[in-house]
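Fold this sequence, please.
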Amino acid sequence: MATTKITAEDLPNLLANDIKVKVAGVDCDGILRGKVMSKEKFLGIAQKGFGFSSAVFGWDMQDVLYTTEANIAPADSGYVDFLAVPDLNSFRRIPWEDDIPFFLVRFVQNDKPVSADGRSMLRSICDKLAANNCKGMAGVELEFMNFQTPSEDGYSANGSQTRDIAAFLDKNAPGALRPLTAGSFSYSATRPVAYKKYFYDIFDTSARFDCGIEGWHTEGGPGVYEAALKVCDVSDMADKVSLFKLLAKSIGVEHGITPCFMAKPMQGQPGSSGHIHVSLTDLEGKNLFARDTPDPNAPWSDAANLSDLGRHFLAGVLEALPDIMPLFAPTINSYKRLVENFWAPVNISWGLEDRMASVRIITPPVCKPGATRFEVRIPGADLHPHYALSVILAAGWRGVEKKLDIKVPPVNVQKAEGIKADLLPNTLEEALRRFNDKGSIAREILDPEFVDFFTATREHELRVWREAVTDWEFKRYIETV
């Protein structure tokens, strides 16, 4: 990404030695949808934008048209074009594609941002914060399992082929897939050596693609890696999460490996998280969650080093959690991760340095005041980063505007006093019911048109799931019923 603002006048020099440009936008499943165009074409549309079929918000992740009416791109519209406007400051070059220039886009219709466009949604919330002398900062930790990519019928002699897992799964059960390594070796110093070229290729290429990794290690579960992306402005961080997934999958192709960002790829193993660290600063960079000195009158010692604004923000997030779950856990599979005893939160909870809580508080003396932040631990690796970051900021800022108090004691107090925390929705169906309710906080803090749209897309997902015959059903009932 450019460190200085790029204008259309800069483009001829910037692209002087190129003949083509790649562009992409982010759909409602967090998938990059784009194309390659000639440099001349790109220079002609760089300011005004170009036509991009609205079908990208009219079909699911498998390009199947929604079975429930999605009002952003209804069938009776004929899937007319949206305007895709390049974000010139998203410029970077793709190292694994011969350094082709790359730009992200925003989607516009009738001179207004498309409400389902997560990049525009997040920008709108950031503009609101900026008007109040605030800026959001974020870091995201992505865990993902890595599989040896099989040939269509099986595995090559060295255990890897560079093609298509989908073709393999047409003829084999998912359990036949082989993780890169067996066993669970968190923070292993030796496990990365088995696939060191792949392991370090991702790290090094991330730096070249402006998706810099701060920490990179093995995690719990067979063949699991974790990438902690370097903290930056929230809008940049959301983009970098989407682009890191693109990078990992692309590098994987070259090494005969398929990275998997499902929240729960394997039964009986820990899930793959997408923890979000978030803070607010003023426009000069001062952390607004930090308190100058500990508060002896704090309602709980866990909040002693949180500013009043930080407490209000936390209260807003906690109050909204049950109503915004689909934006943290957007798939059927997401909720397979959110079970007890697998390092994933199941209730409305918070606590200082508590990794079992939904929101982990990180303040002095654990960190410097400037690093005071919240870690929202609900999202899995399947998160839509723009939606998730948008709703965290919107929920937290609602708490600031309403000066909400934290109503839930921290986890240690709950345990000491025998308080049972309220559970979060544990299925997509239940989460969607809360999200779509007329009195939902989601409807208060997000565009109602978006809430209607996203509800329709998830209802479609539920319908497709209900109609599916799973391996579990077939094995259980084939001979017994």
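The chain has two domains: 8-114, 134-446. The first strand starts at residue 20 and ends at 26.
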